[in-house]
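Homework help board

Subject: predicted structure for assignment chain

Our instructor gave us this sequence and asked us to write out the predicted structure in token form, then describe one feature. I got the tokens but I'm not sure how to describe them. Can anyone check?
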Amino acid sequence: MRKLMPVVLLAAALAAIAVVGAASSGAGAVADGKLKGKVTDATSGAPIQSACVVASDVDGNWTQTQTGADGKYQMNLAPGPYQVFFSDCSGSPNMYVPIVYKKHVGLDSDPTDPVTITSGQNSAANGALPRGGSIAVHAQDETGDPLPNVLACPLYVDDNAQNGFCGVTDEFGDLTITGVPVGLNRLSSYAFDLGQGFVYDQKPVFWLGDKITVTQGQTTGPLTLLYTNGLHGSSSVSGAGHIVRSGHKISVTR
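My token output:
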């Protein structure tokens, strides 16, 4: 089964970015302020090692780093406002749900609280990751043959936006999405090789999609993503990219 990979930009090819311990910047600008903080388990308060921290400026330029053994991180940033995203990219069995500062569960950027970086000064942003569950899917065509390269994304139940990491099915048509918020969710899928997509279960629009219950520490499914010749799927990837704004998508997928 293909491992879900950390991705900062959702391009047509879903290019993967390997996260290394030191911070790296997509902006290329000289950083003259610091962002510091700590990432912890929302239940126990214990520090989370190797959590990913991504800071995105208003132009979509990003900087990322990982936390140390004490859950702490710091990065250099150019002055200005940033959206800050926290996620578990260490493959923890706790299946932590990603959050956006400040305490916004999921990856929806609309309700974020920006962090302002000031030249020569330190700014702080802490994250407490809640524990979630998983959704397993199996994609196939109407003959029963598995479909690889099908994108699946968990969505908020009341908002057509991504609330967890997307993934792509492997050669056997299988995928398990971890770190999905506990409770009700929806699921979008898109078969790149077919140019078709739908919201589970074969619904053409978000609000008609089935609601999927996710329990902490457990896996729901596998859900069958059935693609047929008569399917009138969407030609766009609904809810698949994040951070989502009007006409602008940045993805932090795993």
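Reply (TA_rk): Your tokens look well-formed. For the description, you could write something like this. The chain has two domains: 24-129, 133-238. That's the kind of observation they're looking for.
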